[in-house]
């Protein structure tokens, strides 16, 4: 691994990464707002940001000097379930705007264009051999396969979000622990981590870094949680 990439990994090691995303149907959908959200996260002590779309990443760059995990969420009709950086078009766009770590769906599902992950990532790695790539996985098997393919970081992002992991225990501590001990790559604990205690537990297990999103940057969902507490008997 080159010195630049190792420096990026060192910057987020045993630190918090905050996911700053808002989809078009959400109240905070705005590149300006995501830029300020990332700035607030940096002031609060976050060591990195995860962001969606070239527009948001560009704006966030104006506000923070932290490593950015970049994705583009786009749905294609032929395989709509795979929507996190699904094709080379999204990869190229992220590379052009400049991301420190590029993340993509690394689940065991066929991608747009009827490509397998192995086929797709082989093309991506050949085109961008020096880029750090993160695998957004749903299961232990996904993570082990992604590590074998050559992804630089293995994430638990998609656990519970695929047909074959619906109903799994979340946060996916079993998956996190297994991958930490067996995949041979830095493991990113991401998905369903909603309290400081959950974050601390994942880090104590040996996660390289932890990504927290909704619990910090989605006030609509946070508010719903409090309201539900009032409604529950």
Describe this structure in words.
Helices cover 43% and strands 15% of the residues. By secondary structure, the protein is α/β, with parallel strands linked by helices. The protein has one domain (3-231): Aldolase class I (TIM Barrel, Alpha-Beta Barrel), CATH 3.20.20.70. Strands 1-2-3-4-5-6-7-8 form an eight-stranded parallel barrel, surrounded by seven helices. Helix 2 (31-43) packs across helix 3 (54-63). The longest helix has 13 residues, at 31-43. It is globular, with a radius of gyration of 17 Å.
Main traits of this protein?
10 helices; globular; 233 residues; single chain; 8-stranded parallel beta barrel; alpha/beta; TIM Barrel
């Amino acid at each position: 691994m080159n010195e630049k990439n190792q420096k990026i990994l060192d910057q987020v090691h045993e630190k918090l990464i905050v996911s700053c995303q808002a989809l078009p149907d959400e109240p905070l959908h705005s590149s300006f707002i995501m830029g300020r959200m990332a700035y607030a996260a940096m002031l609060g002590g976050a060591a990195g940001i995860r962001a969606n779309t070239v527009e948001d990443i560009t704006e966030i760059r104006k506000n923070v000097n932290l490593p950015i995990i970049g994705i583009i969420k786009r749905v294609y009709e032929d395989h709509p379930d795979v929507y996190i950086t699904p094709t080379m078009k999204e990869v190229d766009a992220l590379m052009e705007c400049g991301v420190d770590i590029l993340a993509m769906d690394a689940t065991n599902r066929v991608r747009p264009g009827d490509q397998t992950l192995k086929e797709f990532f082989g093309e991506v790695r050949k085109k961008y051999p020096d880029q750090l790539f993160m695998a957004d996985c749903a299961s232990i098997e996904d993570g082990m396969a992604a590590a074998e393919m050559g992804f630089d970081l293995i994430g638990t992002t998609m656990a519970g979000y695929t047909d074959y992991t619906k109903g799994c225990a979340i946060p996916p501590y079993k998956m996190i622990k297994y991958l930490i001990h067996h995949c041979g790559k830095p493991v990113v604990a991401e998905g369903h981590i909603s309290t400081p205690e959950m974050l601390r537990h994942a880090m104590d297990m040996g996660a390289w870094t932890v990504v927290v999103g909704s619990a910090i940057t989605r006030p609509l969902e946070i508010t719903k949680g409090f309201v539900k507490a009032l409604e529950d008997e």
